[in-house]
Amino acid sequence: MNAFAGKRIVLGVTGGIAAYKAAELSRLLVKAGATVDVVLTQAGSEFVGAMTFQALTGRPVWQTLWNDRMSHGMAHIDLTRGAAAVLIAPATANVLAKLAHGVCDDLLSILCLARDCPLLVAPAMNRQMWEHPATQRNMALLSRDGVKILGPASGDQACGEVGEGRMLEAKTLFDELYTFFQPKSLAGKRVLLTAGPTFEPIDPVRGLTNSSSGKMGFALAQACAEAGATVTMIAGPVALPTPRNVQRVDVQTSAQMREAVLQNLPGQNVFIGVAAVADYRPKVVSTEKIKKNGEPMTLVLEATSDILGEIAARPDAPFCVGFAAESQNLETYAESKRKAKNLALVVGNLVQDGLGGETNRVTLFDATGAYPLPSAKKIIVARGIVAHLASLMEKLDGKPCGKPRANS
Fold it and tell me: Annotated catalytic residue: which of 104, 112, 117, 159?
């Protein structure tokens, strides 16, 4: 489901150099199916002109209270009626101060006071302006009033200095707004998941691993965070950016992954084993690089720990979800895994449908049956998994497979 489809966003653009990012943001929102009404302050128009936003949104730009486009002349009232949200990006120190204290002396500040929809702001200013006690007091006031604060980031600034106060990038703001609109079906829940492959060393330079990209696990971590969960992700060796609002713990081996899972398990409501954990590892690891001598090489392997099975078997087990990547007989193997490990849910897929790629096709197996999801980008598939998981948790009261726990 597209969170922007059918939604109208009021985008306030104020007088900061980061206004150029608002142009890209408006393009992204329109492309995603949103209707965007831009409210451009006089100072904002000094950086990006109204014609730019009109061309990108396909709608007239609002700049002043004094216009006759609305028959009763009440744009400051009607612009937010029926809007999904007001987002001010960039939000300068001056605008934030006005919002915090209810000062309304232009169209944007007045409609924010008269709105009946959520208000989000993306601060953008010099680092010293951001750190000033007055700005921090204003941000605290806005936060207490229910205003959603997006950022700022830290980095290079137009003044040549480096520090906090830089406005988030357009794509990041787009993602934050998308998250804001997602149903918070996991609000108040704590989710622990594993992602990526493991690497089992043979010697200091070689090892056993697999072709897991980690993309499905990272997408699922993002989807859980979007749904309001507090997410901790134990990640194997992959070079993927950490999803926003996700705590990441990096590991290499299956043993390290198990240890990290056990350390982070207390207090978790959900455990999702997405990682492609090695089933075997070398029994002996050479401390020196093994030299090639032209002769066959024999490795003695030993089984690794079954992390998911171990967690699901605990008397205090959280709601456990497993993944089954198979090359054939998906329904048989996935359902067998669910029953053998007493899992509430198993997400199954054929490796040819998703391993390493950008899309995936999965089937969800629970005690009531099999539920296929259509092939889609992995983040979309992840959101479908989270929706099913949340619904199942509600039905089963969070218990593994809906059965009373040993200590209940």
Answer: 159
Angle between helices 19-31 and 50-57 (to 10 degrees): 10
Residues 6 or more apart in contact with residue 242 via CB below 8 angstroms: 218, 233, 248
Average pLDDT of the chain to the nearest whole number: 89
Same domain, 176 and 196: no
Domain tally for the chain?
Answer: 2
d(CA 214, CA 330): 20
Contacts for 404 with CB less than 8 Å, ≥ 6 apart = none
Determine whether 159 is an active site residue.
yes
Same domain, yes or no, for 267 and 173? Answer: no
| Closest by CA position to 86, among listed 9, 171, 21, 4 | 9
Per residue in 54-74, pLDDT tens? 999 999 998 887 766 665 556
Q: Strands, DSSP E only, in 125-283?
A: 148-149, 153-156, 162-166, 190-195, 200-201, 207-208, 230-235, 246-250, 270-273, 280-282
Task: Classify residue 48: in a domain, yes or no.
Answer: yes
State the residue range of the domain holding 237: 190-402
Is pLDDT of 151 > 80? Answer: yes
